[in-house]
Amino acid sequence: MRLEEEIKTKGFKSEYHKLSINLIYTYNWLTAISQAEFGLFGITMQQFNILRILRGQYPTPCTIQLLKARMLDKQSDASRLVDRLVAKGLVQREPCTTDRRKMDVLISKKGLDLLEEIDPVMQKLDDTLSGLSVEEAKTLNDLMDKVRDGKPN
Length: 153
Description:
Blueprint: H1 3-7, H2 15-39, H3 45-57, E1 62-63, H4 64-70, H5 78-87, E2 91-95, E3 103-107, H6 109-127, H7 134-149
Antiparallel strand pairs: 1-3, 2-3
């Protein structure tokens, strides 16, 4: 459905204005779908993001600073997210062996098992974008990269 119909508006100031609204609307649409799916597993999108990063690093531990740098949502409090994941038994936190001021964070077996359960759900989320061809998805990815690079037309 067209954005104008979805948000019940007659028009936009410009195509750039429509694009910014469309990106925000689509982000919120994907977030709502994702949150509902992750909620079934008792975790949030941000907690999933931490687990995903830790699985990618496994068996090497991560520092909180590395997690913050790699998170999709830069506004998230990585320390609190890790605390919640520790409480659920999904990650372990120990003092860093090379710098006692830092903490090493490592995904647990329980966390790896949970991600294995979630993997098919991630495919389902990817399938929500299957209205695009692979070439269209690549083009859209390239365009969004270009937007973040701040390059003019």
